[in-house]
Amino acid sequence: MAEGFLKLIRSDYVKWLMKNYPWAYLLLNLIALRACRSLPNSDGLKIGEAFIGDWAAIGATRGQYRHALKILQKEKLIEIIETNRTRKKATTGTTTEGSKVNILNSMVWDINQENNNHCNSHSTTTERPLNDHEQEVLRSKEIKEEEDKEYARTAKRPRTTNDILFFDSEKGEYVGITEKDLTDWRTIYPHIELAVEITKSITWLKSNPSKSKKSLWRKFLTNWLNRANDTAHNKKAYQAAGSSPGSDRRTKDADGNPVENQYKGRF
After folding, report:
1. Cβ neighbours for 160, distance < 8 A, ≥ 6 positions apart
2. Residue 78 contacts by C-beta under 8 Å, 6 or more apart in sequence?
3. Which three-class secondary structure state does DSSP give residue 8?
């Protein structure tokens, strides 16, 4: 390997990479050290290409090496040219081990290629690196996108400010029932004792704690009151149409009137 030096780009992006993905940073260092800087090359490499695969060279495990490789690809710092699986059989009689990678840009390392050969087919390493402001804008955009995805996955649905009615399981009572709610319910559900039914629903929730984790509490309570009102209304209507005590209310004559004997008036 020809002697020379590398240029490390001093930027916030480099600091970010070192802090968050140290193994990726170390692997990129190794690639930059091994990258071809001039032509011709005895290994058949082009400018910016290098062979890697010996993860122990940076003190990493195989898992750490593979993860670092994925990070460098994701950040578009390198690309994999070929691997042991994709490499074609050598026609020169020599074989190489590991993977061949190519440095895509000089955002972190400038390999300081030699200019004694103008037949350079590797143009991407000479691209202008982003300045600090451009890198910060890029990273801020990516971080914002990641935060939005995380919020969408974990954030709870916020309770609307227009309706604050909910059941406080610690206090064992409803919170947010207004006087207007009580007035409206008395009008809508005239056949029940409102306070009694609300207390019944609280007792049921205490007896069934696994079912007390709801989000639409107003819907739950109004459904409860609606069922209770319908039951009470039907009971009153049935009692109003009933006969004297002791009669069989399940038995009616041909006109639908309750009778004591199902055969009475039929023979």
Report:
1. none
2. 28, 31, 72, 101, 102, 103, 104
3. strand
- How deeply is 217 buried, as exposed, middle or buried, from its count of CB atoms within 10 A (0-12, 13-18, 19+)? buried
Supply φ then ψ for residue 182, to 5 degrees.
-65, -40
Mean pLDDT by 10 residues, the chain (267 residues): 76 91 93 87 85 89 92 92 71 62 90 60 49 69 74 58 77 90 93 93 88 83 93 84 54 65 56
C-alpha 125/C-alpha 48 separation (Å) is 7
Q: Could you give the count of Cα atoms lying within 13 Å of 193 in the half-sphere of its Cβ?
A: 4
Residues in the chain: 267
What is the pTM for the complete model shown? 0.42
Of the candidates 228, 236, 235, the residue with the CA atom closest to the CA atom of residue 199: 228
Q: Which residues does 33 contact at the CB level (< 8 Å), separation at least 6?
A: 6
Residue 107 contacts residue 24 (beta carbons within 8 Å): no
Q: Distances in Å between the alpha carbon of 31 and those of 26, 44, 113, 261?
A: 9, 16, 14, 101
The amino acid present at 128, given as its one-letter code, is: R
219 within 8 A of 201, measured Cβ to Cβ? no
Q: For the chain, how long is the longest CA-to-CA vector? A: 125
Cβ contacts of 89 within 8 Å, gap of 6 or more: none
The whole-number pLDDT of residue 145 equals: 77
CB contact at 8 A, 191 and 233: yes
pLDDT of residue 92: 46
CB count in 10 Å sphere of residue 84: 11
